[in-house]
Amino acid sequence: MAGFFFTAKHECEKCGKKFRKVEEFMQHQQVAHENKQYVCEKCGMGFDGMEQMRDHAKKFHSYNRMLDDRKKKSNS
């Protein structure tokens, strides 16, 4: 069985995600990065609310480590 390859013509400068279609790329920009009040310190993904960002951090990053890093910064 041959492998499936696609050429990604559009790459997000903020997170590195790649897209074949400009429409998908533009939608990603609006949903993931534009006009978001809360931004993940680990990957730069944006969120409308703190709870959404916390859920993201728990799922994709070491949430406790992110909190530890924040505490270290505030104590400096």
Automatic annotation (TrEMBL):
It comes from the Archaea. Signal peptide: none annotated. Residues 10-38, 38-66 form the C2H2-type domain. Transmembrane segments: none annotated. The lineage of its organism: Archaea, Nitrososphaerota, Nitrososphaeria, Nitrososphaerales, Nitrososphaeraceae. This is C2H2-type domain-containing protein. Pfam families: zf-C2H2 (PF00096).
